[in-house]
Predict the 3D structure of the following.
Amino acid sequence: MKAVQACLLAILFLFVSVSPVLAVNENFTNSESVILAVAGDPAGGHAADPHHADDHHDPAPWSVIPFVLLLLMIATGPLFYPHFWHKRYPLVAILLGISVVVYYLFFLKNFHAPVHSLAEYVSFIALVGSLFVASGGILIKVDKEGTPMVNVLMLLFGAVIANVIGTTGASMLLIRPFIRLNKHRIKPYHVVFFIFIVSNVGGSLTPIGDPPLFLGFLKGIPFFWTTGALWPMWLFGILALAATFYFWDKRNHKGENKPEAKYTGKIEVKGAKNLLWLGVIIMAVFLDPNVFDWVPGINYDGHKISFLREVIMLAVAVLSYKTANKDALKGNEFDFEPIREVAFLFIGIFATMMPALHLIGEFARGNPDIITVDSLYWLTGGLSGVLDNAPTYLNFLSAGMGKIGLDIGSKADILTYVAEQSNSLMAISIAAVFFGAFTYIGNAPNFMVKSIAEQVGVEMPAFIKYIVKYSIPILLPILFVTWVIFFSGWLF
């Protein structure tokens, strides 16, 4: 079975890898009006150029079926057919992904979108994979009782450092210590609030914190604009979630009858040298060939596709694992299953969501009247919960700028948008990050945290139950109040 999975994965990569050559042969290298997710311009680089309007056909509405089907199977598989799903999810994700790639390459004659989707996926998996492996070699032991206040302090710490090492780095570093801290009273809500706070909302203060904000930085948004503009929403969101968690955790009496243990209050760290590897990964993030001319890249349709930072990150993953403290790896019960699950599911997601992103972007640009601060907040947010939040952010940033005649590909226009449409940019930024917590697939760390928790025996809620039991009653009211206070204009 693994051989079949590997073969299918190779076929998918082959399709998107040879597409630049096919594009040259068939004179389709100007098909730039496709939405490019992370690696390029979501408007295709020539959204305002009528000469590029008819380079290729738009995807048909029915082409989103594989994406919807994949989401439905992610939601229902673990609940209704767990044996099939846990054994066959790589095959399902790859086959659905291949169906969309084939449609783009051979029916739409669109080679641009699959190539950039592949570049996005490689960058994505290199970053989250290297952070996962490097942080897995760091064992943090907190010899304290897992009281509600101690838990809140640990979640707040995670929310802060998420802005330094990213939500993925903070999540992988702290989820195991957080679970161990509550080993006698652990319940699913502990992990869900961890996802809300550390894996998502916490990373709102810097471009390093969450992928959408980093993409904005690469487009030309000043690094410290994020901190200066978003800190009130960050503070409100973190405190609201932390307070909700505290009162929820106060009602948890599980483990109260266990014999009292003596705690020293010490915090022990093993494998601290892996912090250096984390530093290398974070520094490598900035090696973008479209920002720095001296960074090598693969030229494709006037855009440089990054490979140096990905090579560095993957090399760090190998070296950090080979040189890791063995006691730390053993103490963390480290294995590769969580990142394997993310790698297979997200290659399917990245491939199948191409038509959805394109159609969403075309709708937004064709209906400028609906592009307001309110709609940017709710549309960016709502779609960030079920699509990857990074390309969703770029699509609505492009739509917001396009409404006033600005081009997302121009850094001068980006600075104009920052100065003149700050509220719209704040709405897009906060929505992309905050709503990423709404489902397991909204942001990369969510799935990995879920998988790690399940490995150590926490019965995590299934996809739909996570939304119904936690996201709607807990997260959605906070998202609504955030909108009311900061974006609706009702109060200020």
